[in-house]
Amino acid sequence: MTKNYILSTFAAIALGFVVSCDNTTEDPPNQNKNTTSGTTITGPRILSKVNNGTKDLEEYVTTGGALSQVFIRDAGSSNTLTSTVTYSGTTISQIKIQDNVTPHVTDNTYALTYTSGKLSAFTMDQTVMGMANHSDFTVYYDANGALYRIVEKKKMAGSTSYTHYTELKFTFSANNIVKADYTTMLMSGGTPTASTASTTSYLYENYDTKVNPYTTLPKEYFMVSSTMTQLNAYMLSSNNVGKVTIQNPAGAAISYPKGYLYDSQNYPVSDQSQTIKYIYKPL
Questions:
Q1: Which residues are CB-contacts of 25 (< 8 A; sequence separation ≥ 6)?
Q2: Greater model confidence, 13 or 99
Q3: Are 153 and 136 in contact (CB under 8 A)?
């Protein structure tokens, strides 16, 4: 039951490429179609909702451009992940992510730390089925200041020593993430055990030249949430991904196409079937 819930909820988070997959036979899908339907916002905007016609699958609650809550809803159930964002001044200092079941399967509290204005580390205190876990994350940037990797060291079940290690490594082309490698392994004596390592890779291809709607929201939120749902790392890119491929440690790679319709300001307003809608509000 717990595993099925987690998979269902993660499917909701991943809706950006799962439920908006395009059925076109074009390879890659034509991403340069414009639409003039709906009301066009001509000035600054922020992403408010992603809707499938019957449900707001993603909802971003903002005031004056400051993100306060995020709701991620599963398309086929009542499962919801709620993120509550807390600030210190204008900087995000805490993100709490909880599901809506009892007892919680997801109950994570992240405390964020910055160096020279950039997110450099965060901690996670997590309660799972009554078990307390703690993680320390370190954020690394390359020589050009681009996000390079996020490393997690976890203490499970109240342990005083690190027991698990994960690394989310990003590869950029210009301002778009083209690959994310997620490696997990056990730790012994505070040292990762390479013989236990397993890597899942996510490939992001066929980017357009338009505006990624998620760039209107704080990137720190997506940096933190990407450690939970790695396949959504493309949300940190400047443009919109046209194809996502998942390569698990075993088995064949699985690919999903994506396509968009845009408004006159170069923002996506829907997928090509006009099933998934991107809804904004003006700033």
A1: none
A2: 99
A3: yes
pLDDT tens across 67-80, in order?
999 999 999 999 99
Residues 141, 118 contacting (CB under 8 angstroms)? yes
Higher pLDDT: 112 or 104? It is 112
Q: Is the pTM here over 0.90, yes or no?
A: no
